[in-house]
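Notebook B, p. 112. Complex prediction, attempt 2.
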Amino acid sequence: MTLHRCLRSLACSLVVLACGGIAIAGERGPSSTPSVSDVTAHYPALAFAMYEDSLRGALVLTRDIDAFLAAPSEATQAQARRSWIDARRVYSQTEVFRFGNPNVDQWEGNVNAWPIDEGFIDYVNGPYSHDVGNPHARENLIASSLPLDVKALRQRHEMSGIEPNVATGYHAIEFLLWGRDPNTPAASAGSRPATDFATGDACTNGSCDRRRLYLKLATNILVADLRDMVEDWRPEMGAYWHLYGALSTQEKLQRIVLGLAGLSGGELAGERLRVALLAHSQEDEQSCFSDTTHLDVYYNVLGIHDVLLGRYVSSTGVVTQGPSLYALARRQQPAVATRLFEQVTQTLAGALEVAGAANAGTPFDQQITPENSTGRARIETLITRLEAQTATFEALGTGLASR
Amino acid sequence: MCAHALAESPRSGGTATTGIHDTSAFSLPAPSLPVTRRGDFFAGNSFFKNPWVPAPASTTARDGLGPLFNTNTCQSCHLKDGRGRPPEPGETMTSMLVRVSVPGPSEPGAIETRRGVTPDAVYGDQLQNRANPGVAPEARIDVTWETMHGRFADGSEYTLQKPRLRVSELGYGALRSDAMLSPRVAPALIGLGLLEAVPEAQIQRRVDPDDADRDGISGRANYVWDESRGARALGRFGWKAGQPKLRQQVAAAFAGDLGLTTSLFPEQPCTASQSACARGPHGGAPEVDDRILDLVTFYVRALGVPARRKTQLTAVQRGEALFRSAGCTSCHVESMRTGKSETFPWFANQEIHAYTDLLLHDMGEGLADGRPEFQATGREWRTPPLWGIGLIPIVSRHTRYLHDGRARNLQEAILWHGGEAEKSRRFFESLDATQRDELLFFLDNL
């Protein structure tokens, strides 16, 4: 993943941005003024490509989790962790579809729910803050006598309607792979021993057989859920592909723009970054076990970039490209389009800085501490840029709708 | 009964009406909220949902919980922004709490002017049943039930259950024998911003303390204390309309229910007799800074209202007609209009259908808690809004109604109505089973 290595230097990030610029320059020919229907038709194709890539990432993760469970060791655990991170790089970009498309929004809680009351799934050592109104906060499904199977985990997800009772999804798997992040030392992530998944006497913290089964089931469920979403968007076949196709052009545009604005504003600027900054609490970072919240943020922002420019580069290098919302905007509302491109570029640069600081040894949860004024300013800047682009997306949506 | 007005609008909250009726029905932002303000909504939601922890916690601003508290998140009482319920036998009370006060001096002093009650010298004005390590919780509270029997006009029988509070494990000595206890479940939070936007004059227009129009309904405004202005103000929120504004309501809940101080309520809920409580440690001054208080207030204010359902069905329309014939709409007023709003322009000038007049009514001895609050007597309650009430089973996964959750379904809630609502309850009792079902079906689809 060259891009990831690249994140360390801002100079490098500018190259990435310049590449984005080239892609746009390429649209200046006759194809640079797509019709509204060209743009709305390309959107589900892009979603399909991105969810297919997410599924691919989950299948690689499955392979590496199988290898870890077959021979639990620090090396196999580390490989499974790397595959989880890689799978998230792709999935995080698809979050740009969530806020505009009800099929994604309704499904999202199964794969991406957080924060977790960890004691619902497994043992917890040390201080543990959970909602006292949550009677299942120490359920410990792994140590319980509940027969574990796919149905049981699905039924218990968000048990009693309480959201932190997360039984499935990326963050449940993350917790099983990493364990809780004790922040000792501050820059470290979770340090669950590989022996938590060992067989026989090597087992640590008890119930290893059930923990192994749980991890396997959670991974299978993630794959099944992603497969459902791929099928939902499959061209000519998917239920949502047809549902979306039957919408008016104006409604399609609204969904596209709402997805872009919703991820920029409510989700990223608001729930993820503003809250983390105000609370400066590890409980408020999305991927807290692995300390990879900076990647969630960066790849979310990249997903916004993808959809605006109608271009996705898969984890295997396959490019899906087509008529873009940006090109349409440039024809219909040139001033708004120019502003939007500047803002999205600035935001991407800001997200790269947050990710770069994490890669240089200051994870997201250390950038938000009250003492780290540089880190906080970096995130504050990103919030401001995200808020600005949200307003521009809203203006774009209003303008496009009237034509 | 005129037919023309039936079911004229399922859009209970005007442009703040949502179309989702699943478990998230109470948790959605009003559609009229601009997308650029959704960041504030979701940030506020996060502080609403996630747990507060005891101080000192090195890594978080979410500290300062307690020393005495009822719960550690807003969400644990208002689960999915819905209604609380009384505890099951043996369960620790969580989404319900018990207010306490003692008979006051005849001349109200400073504390009475501001709180509307005379707090107990030891236990304050609310029993907190949880505490941080090293501090004794104030009490354990269980609820037992006494069964009562009644009969409809058509001869069929019904039963009701009346709560008896059992206060045990008192942490600071016996309660005074004249202490007044008022158990209250957490109310649903939908549409509060719209109710806040209703002009005062519109609420005051319905005030009729001496029943001058002789319709049997008085309707009194509660005048309470506005902490931000340091002055008396019209009360709107809470079971007895004890709070004038949402921001103060939120701050009061932070203080009383979570033991978290704010700029509006900077003092810990510790009395002079509770030294371990007063000693702390505390989580800063205030523990919830204004930015976070404002975000949580914004969240609560911006929650939308689910649309009415099945308004085209004849059974719903007939139920609605019966609801009117019974005179329920004298207090559960069907329509109000919001006014101008500088802080929340998206809610301005909306026709809303909250089914409340926001006024106090004598509900009879059966429902009385015997604990006055500001102008509200021990028999008076503020008309609670009914919008969304049919979704409580879906959102909150129970069917417990009224201020202490004694009613096990909406029929029982109606049958508890007394005092000014006596005539309406009698009307309901006189209906046959089909008509009663129609009226309930109307409520089920609000």
